[in-house]
Amino acid sequence: MSQLAGIRLWGSAADDHAALQRPMTKLLQRYPVTVVMLAPYVALILPQALMYKNPETSFLFWLVGLAVLGATGLETVFFLVRSPYRSAMDATSANGKYGQAMTVARAVCSVSIAADAANAWFGGGTVFTQVSGQAASSPVVSATSLLSSWKYVAVGLLMSVALGKSAPRNSVYRWLIALVACQVFVTALTARTQPVIGFLTFVGLFGLLLGVVRLRFMMIGVVVILLVWPTVFAIRNEIREKGGVAVSEDVSAEDRLRFDLQIAGVAKFKVPAPVPGRPGVDEMLRYGLIPRFLDADRPLLSTGARINSYLGGDETSSYTFLPLGTIYFLDGPDGVVLFFALWSFIVLLLLRTGNPGPGAVKLCILSLAIAGPLGWTNTYPDSIAAFIQSMVSAGPILVALIVLRRRSMRSNAIRAAKLGRTAC
Question: Which of 165, 337, 379, 385 could form a disulfide with 284 if both were Cys (CB 3.0 to 4.6 A apart)?
Fold first, then answer.
C-alpha cells in the first residue's frame, strides 16, 4: 500500500487549484452531460462501428447527434445566460464547510460495502433472479436493497472531501478502492458484469468532471478493462453455467463488447414503439417512493423484459438498445432531445449555481443523477424510478450533511467572534 500512496489522483491544494483552472476541466464543467453522454461513444462504440464497418454507422452518428443537440444546446444557452461557474477557490471553500465530512464518508462507505455484499450473498440482483423473473425472497435482500445507491453517495462524499481538503488524499483513495473491490465481489456472486463496469465508468467520469481524477488515469483504466475483459467474460460464463443458466458459445468476449450492434438494432423499427407494460409516471413514483418491503407483491420493474417480449421473446430475458437507443425506441427522436436537455438543466443547476459553488449535498445528488439516468449501461425509464428511490434512500445522509454544515459554520462564527474580542 505504501507504493500506492505515491500514486496521485489529485495533488496538493495548489495542484487542485491549477487543475480546476485548466481549460479542459473548465470545458468539462461547462458541458457536463455532453461529456458524460459522449464518453462511451467516443471511446468505444463509434470506433467499433467504424472499425467493423457497421452498416448503420451513419444512423449511430445521427442518434448521438440528437443527444448532443439536446445536451449541448441547453448547456450552451445556460452558459450564455448565467455567469461562468467560478471553480477553483469556490470548490474548496464550498466543500470545506462540512465538519466531520470524512467521518460521514467513512460511515456511508462502510454501510454501502456491507449492504451490497450482503445483498449479493443472499441472492439479490443475480442473473439467476433475472432469468426467473422473481425477486429474491430473503428479508436481507429487501432491507439492503434500500441502500443500493449509497455507493454513489459515498463517491460524492469522497469527492467533496477531496475538494474540501478535509482528509488526506490517500485515505480518500483507499476508500474508493474498497468501493470498487466490493463491486468486483458482487459481480463474482451475481454473475453480472454490468454493475462493476457501470460503477468504474461512473467513478472515472465523475472524478474527471470535478477535476479530481486525472485524464491519464481514466485512459489507463479503460485500457486495463479492455485487456482483462476476455478473462472476466470467461469467469462470468463459468459462474452462470454452474448456476444452471444457459450460455451461448457463439458469443465471444469480443462480440459482447459490440455495443454498436446492440444500439444499431433499433434503426429497423418504427418509433416510438408501443411496448405493452411500459411503466408510466404512476408506476415510477410507486417504485421510487415506496420501499419493496411495504409493497412486497409488486413485480420487478424491467422494461428490458417488456421490450424483449415485444420483439418476440419472453419476459424471462431482458433486452435493451442501451439507454440512448432505448429512449429513441420508446419515445422517438424528440424524446432523445428532450431527455438530454432536461437532465442537462438538472445537472447544471447542481454544478453551476449557488455561491460559493457545489458543496457536499449537491455533489451527492449530482452523483446519483450521473450514475442513474445518465449511466450508459442502465435501462430507461427504470433508471428514473431508481433515481427517485435513491434520493429517498439518501435523505438521511443529506439531512446529516446540512446539520453538520450548520454546526461547523456556527462553531467557526463563535470562534471568530472570540478571536475578535481577544484582539480588541
Answer: 385
Q: Which three cell numbers stand for residue 250?
A: 457463439
**Does residue 190 contact residue 127 with C-beta atoms inside 8 Å?**
yes
| pLDDT for position 89 | 40
Phi, psi of 252 (to 5 degrees): -90, 175
Average pLDDT over residues 102-114: 93
**Is the peptide bond preceding residue 291 cis, with omega within 30 degrees of 0?**
no
- Say if CB 136 and CB 122 are below 8 A apart: yes
Residue 133 has pLDDT above 70, yes or no: no
User: How many C-beta neighbours within 10 Å does residue 280 have?
Assistant: 10
Q: Residue 251 contacts by C-beta under 8 Å, 6 or more apart in sequence?
A: none
Q: Which of 316, 319, 309, 301 is nearest to 387 (CA)?
A: 301
Cα gap 12→2, rounded to integer Å: 18
Domain-by-domain residue ranges, the chain?
2-261+332-378+393-423
Neighbour-count burial of 263, counting CB atoms closer than 10 A to its CB (0-12 exposed, 13-18 middle, 19+ buried) = buried
Give yes or no for a contact between 386 and 150, defined as CB atoms under 8 angstroms apart: no
Strands (E) located in 9-76? none
Mean pLDDT of 317-333: 92
Is 312's pLDDT higher than 80?
yes
The one-letter amino acid code at 48 reads Q
Chain centre to alpha carbon of residue 198 = 7
Whose CA is closest to 372, among 102, 33, 76?
A: 33
> Residue 311 carries which DSSP code?
T
pLDDT tens-place string over residues 160-192: 888 888 778 888 889 999 999 999 999 888 888
Rounded CA-CA distance 180/175 in Å is 9
Residue 411: pLDDT band with limits 50, 70, 90: low
- Helix (H) / strand (E) element for 153: namely helix 150-164
pLDDT value of residue 97: 60
